[in-house]
Amino acid sequence: MVCENGTIRYHSHLDSWVWKMRPEDPRETETYGPFDIDVFFTSQANAFLDAIEQEGSPLCTLEEGIQTLRVNLAILESVDSGNSLLKI
Asked: pLDDT tens digits for the chain (88 residues)?
């Protein structure tokens, strides 16, 4: 994914993220163990419920959530249209 402040790529088959902030920067890589999607969903759902009950802070701002939704919708549109150069 190419964003305003850098690029990032997830290699699911290698359980790793690769990113860089500027074109001239070297690529940075971080490897994680295999993801268990249920752990992420449960954690996010619990944080949401805590925020609603005012027992914790939201994980992101409304603006960040809206931008995340825009990115996901653009990715889906790109897949549907075959156009990999959509503006987010």
From this structure: 888 889 999 887 888 899 999 889 999 999 987 777 788 889 999 999 999 999 999 999 999 999 999 999 988 988 888 776 655 5
Q: Which amino acid is at 65?
A: G
- For the full predicted model, state whether its pTM sits above 0.85: no
- Which position has the token pair 């156009």? 83
Distance (Å, whole) CA 25 – CA 30: 16
CA dihedral 53, 55, 59, 60 (to 10 degrees): 70
What's the CA gap between 44 and 70, in Å, rounded? 19
- Helix or strand (DSSP H, E) at 52: helix 37-52
Rounded Cα–Cα distance for residues 21 and 85 (Å): 20
